[in-house]
Structure formats: structure tokens, C-alpha cells
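hey m, so remember when u said the C-alpha cells were messed up on ur end? i reran from scratch. heres the input so u can diff it against urs
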Amino acid sequence: MDERSAKSGEPREAVPKGRGAFALDGASQRARAAIKAAWWTAAGGVTRALAQPTRGEAKVRFEPQGPPVSAARLRRAYLAAFDKDAADVAAGLYPPAQDGLGDPAEAFRQALDVIADARAVDQRRRRGDGVEVREEPGTEAYPNYYRQNFHYQSGGWFTDASARRYEAQVEALFSGAAGAMRRRALSLLARHWRGQDQRGLKVVDLACGSGAFLADLATAFPRAAIAGLDLSRAYLAAARSRSGRGGVQANAERLPFADASLDAVTCVYLFHELPPRVRPVVAAEIARVLKPGGVLAFADSVQPIDEPDLSRLLEAFPAYFHEPYYSTYAQADLPALFGAAGLSVAGQDQAFLTKALLLEKPW
């Protein structure tokens, strides 16, 4: 994306071409991603075969409105995520990702854990029980909208076991493409800061979860001061361990940072899990803590307006994965939402089922 299109927010037309110095890194990224994709595609297939979420009786019935999804169109969108990721590595925007399979024994353990938990997830889905965690002691102090089993996952956001399992769950769900999709936000931020001295830059990864994107940030910007923030104690502990960076437990509605104190905030897959009344509050808090000229690197689900051909898939997501606020997110005008907080779109990108925006605070 050239300088003009980055500032206008026009869609990215082409992936960058690799420089000679990083061509081998790009090839390595592509090869490791292929192995990872094959592994998590197989693991996801096993979990779906065991649970068979589209069959049998369930409290929530899915009645699609959109047209059937073309398998060829879906495959093209899926593969494009890996193509963009590898091309960005080859262009030197960021180093090869460290989210490959790594230790085969650990990858096997993670897959078995996800598969073993699949039946419990499916039982909650069939009961329509997305608030089981509200019965757990110690959750009362959290916002009511947060006290849910998002994705019908065991433990919600509250347990160490959930935090350990989460990354494997999303990779199995998205057939190994989760990391490549998230890094569309990293790509936008790396382009924006290309050639800039990282020393002195302060970045917070908002709702850092179990730390996969926080680890990407730490690898891409090793000299910057980077920390995670999450409302979950368990997930924050996992993020610290995964990334080697510090973190703070706090609510995104009341960020514990001074006005105009951060050069960048990153936010990945948070806004579709916020009620409509909370989204403007969080957007305003992000704008408050950014310095003039600071940026928000945002990534979340694509919306039907972005991918009409995949609209049926987007309709299915909240039905099968307990996403109570997703339907309002799907219709939200994100540039207007952040514009009301004083942030303007400076760049955008998307891959497979994720869209990314770079939003800038005016000087």
C-alpha cells in the first residue's frame, strides 16, 4: 500500500513484493504456516466430527438468510490470509511469526485438549447455556456482560485451563489461520512506523487475551515499551508467559493510563464481544490515552458489508458460538464509531474473516 492509499483508507490492492534480504524469511513463514494449517485443519475436523454441532436438537436454531457460501470463494479468502502474511515477512515488515507448531509433543497435547473439551462445549451449545460461569464464585465483581461462556468455552474468560486452551481453540476453529488474520493489524502498524526509531515508543495491547498478538508485537518492535491489558487474571498470566512482556489487569472502560501517554494501542477481537452501549466508551478511552498523532491498530471480524459472499458464515457464527453482541457489531459503522471519539481511518486491510483498521488521533 503506498503512502497515499494508506492515508486515504483505500483497500489494499496488492501484497508487497519481498526484498532479497527477507525472501528466505518469507519462504520459511509460508512453509511453517502450511504445516500449521494442515495440523489445525485436521484437529478442527475431529472436534466437529465428535460434536456434530449442526445435527441433533439444540436450543438455538440457525435459520440462514444469506446465500450458500461458495467453497471456492471461501478457500480463496482463506489462502489469501497466508499469502499476505508471508509477503509482509518477505518485505521486512515484521519477522517470521513464532506461532508455528514448535514442539510436536506440545502441539499434540494441545490438540487432544481441544478435542477432549469439544463435547463439553457442544453440550452447552445444545442447552443454550452461555452464562454457566456466573455460578462460579469470584466472578461477581466483573461486568455482567463479561460473565459469559463466550464461544460456549469451558471456564469463560476466568480459568487457567481456558487461558491455556484458547489459542489452540481458535486455531482449530479457523484451520490454522488465526495468527495470519490477526497480523493484518500488525501489518498496518508496521507500515505506519516503518523507518521510525522504536526507542521511546509506548504500546498497549488492549484485551490481550492469552497473548498471541502481544507476542507478535514484542517480536516486531523489540525496542518499544510494550505491555498487555486484560480484564482476566488467568488470561493476563498466560499473556505474560507467552510474550515475555508485562501486563495490567484492568477494564477497557477505564484505562489506567494518563491522557495522551501512549503512541499506539492495539485491539484485536474485542469489539464484537462488547455490548453496543460499551463500544463508544472504550473507543473514547482509547482516544484519550493516545498521544496526538498516535494510532489504534484494530482487528476484528469482517462484517457483511465487507464480504457479502460470506454473509451466511457470519450469520452462523453467533448461533453456534454464543456471541450475544455479534449481530449489533456486524451492522456497526466502525469509522463513525471511532470518528465520534476523534479517531480517523488512516489505513485498512482484511484477510479471510478478519478486517483491520489503522485509526489516527489528530495532531
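this time it looks ok to me. The first strand starts at residue 202 and ends at 206. if urs says something different then somethings off w ur setup not the seq
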